[in-house]
Automatic annotation (TrEMBL):
Superkingdom to which the source organism belongs: Bacteria
UniProt name for this protein: TnpV protein
One Pfam family cited in the UniProt record for this chain: TnpV
Length: 123
């Protein structure tokens, strides 16, 4: 079994004095990534371009981004439950003081976003 780029046959085209690879992406009929998948895409493109290019060439970028999205959503749900318990955010608080409840929920959302960025997006 051949490994790595040995099995890839890439055709090139002449562009001035340079040969450019003829790369095309297959249309993807898969689930599109959401907020966290798109954040991961932006991070890869700006800070891990070699990895971004590898995912593109292997046509696994969308799959990777969807996996990140799914993992982030599961982790967000876990963190939400933990942080609501920690901060004593209940339905009773929501009824008694909806403004305070909204402030605390927004604070938790921001905290979770930072955690997810550290754990998943910026890895």
């Amino acid at each position: 079994m051949k490994k790595g780029a040995d099995h890839m046959k890439i055709e090139y085209r002449q562009h001035g004095d340079v040969l450019l690879p003829n790369l095309t992406l297959k249309p993807e009929n898969e689930v599109q990534p959401g907020k966290y998948g798109l954040m991961r895409r932006q991070f890869l493109k700006e800070h891990r371009n070699y990895l971004f290019q590898e995912y593109l060439m292997n046509q696994t970028l969308n799959q990777h981004l969807v996996e990140i999205e799914q993992t982030a959503r599961k982790r967000k749900e876990q963190l939400m439950n933990q942080l609501k318990t920690r901060d004593r955010i209940t339905e009773q608080l929501k009824k008694e003081d909806p403004i305070l409840w909204a402030q605390k929920m927004n604070q938790i959302e921001r905290e979770i976003d930072e955690i997810l960025k550290t754990e998943l997006i910026y890895q």
